């Protein structure tokens, strides 16, 4: 079982390295809801081993980071770092929305908790608000 897990882990590592070296385009890591150290002590080591500086071209964080240390670590992963504020974040300068471009795509991440706050039985009210502002997800 441990041998299989190690082989799978090394296979994933090779896959991501190959993707980063290919002409595939820009890779983006979209991640959020860490809540470190409030709900979790840290990210799993296997996950952190895969995430090293300059492996992906873009890091997009959807908020609820939990600590300045985790924010700084995420920011160190890529020169193109984008982060929005979650309801549990108290990091100065974070905004609830942010719009930027990756290649030919306009990206506008928001924290899930901000979407959830506007959820109704039939639709996400937030979607209508974003369309009015001409933000495209």
Q: What is the residue-averaged pLDDT?
A: 75
The helix tally amounts to 5
Structural class: alpha/beta
Write out the strand line-up for the largest beta sheet, numbering strands in chain order: 1-2-3
Q: Which H/E pattern describes the elements?
A: HEHEHEEEHH
Distance between the termini: 40 Å
Q: How much strand content do the residues show?
A: 5-15%
| Biggest sheet statistics | 3 strands, parallel
Instruction: Using the alpha-carbon principal axes, give the shape.
Output: globular
Cα-based radius of gyration, to the nearest Å: 17 Å
Helix share, percent = 25-40%
The tally of strands reads 5
Task: Indicate the low-confidence ranges by residue numbers.
Answer: 124-137
Word description of this protein:
With 137 residues, this protein is an alpha/beta fold. Helices cover 35% and strands 13% of the residues. The protein contains 5 helices and 5 strands; from the N terminus they run H-E-H-E-H-E-E-E-H-H. It has helices at 2-21, 45-50, 68-76, 112-116, 125-132; strands spanning 28-31, 58-61, 80-83, 100-102, 105-107. Strands 1-2-3 form a 3-stranded parallel sheet, covered by helices on one side. Strands 4-5 form a two-stranded antiparallel sheet. Helix 2 links the parallel strand 1 (28-31) and strand 2. The longest helix is centred in the first third of the chain and has 20 residues, at 2-21. Mean pLDDT is 75; it is low at 124-137.
Gist of the model:
With about 140 residues, the chain is of the alpha/beta class.
